[in-house]
Amino acid sequence: MRLYSSRIAPIIRDIIEALVDGELVEIEQPMVKEVELDVESVLKEYLRAERQLTEEAKDLAHQRGLDYSAHQKIKRQLAEKRRFGLYEESVAYIANQLIETLLHSQHVEEIFGDDKELRAAIAPVLKKHMAQGDALDQEVRKRIKNLQEGTQDWEIRYQQTLERLKQARGE
Prior knowledge:
- This protein has one domain (about 5-170).
- Strands 1-2 form a two-stranded antiparallel sheet.
- About 70% of the residues lie in helices and about 0% in strands.
- The model has no long low-confidence stretch (mean pLDDT about 90).
- By secondary structure, it is an all-alpha fold.
- It is globular, with a radius of gyration of 18 Å.
């Protein structure tokens, strides 16, 4: 599962809705925008950290004279060392970060649910949106399968194809 920046706004909306509708948190109306910004900051930080890991892994693979396929293994090792959730662990990692942020946010009036209940409300929202991104990712990869993954051409074509598919789908 992968988080895409284009999915952040709907994720924020759905997470806050799930928490409020489930009566797990109370947010005063004037503070809703601030809580949205809190949630957004967690999601954007996750994307930033994941990009940084990717770049570090690519650099290490290059320094060691390894081909691109080794970069994924290096990335996973770096993530484990930093206790950063990638791939299948990403939902739990992001949910935990969101819970921690909500618990310390001055913008949340009251939290009625425990960590387990909050996680049970947040995780399905993340899975739903991140799975949509997986389907899009698979479609893009299928369309550019003739290119060598990890090359500059592949990266450029991936982004171009991704943007075209998003536009075609109205995202």
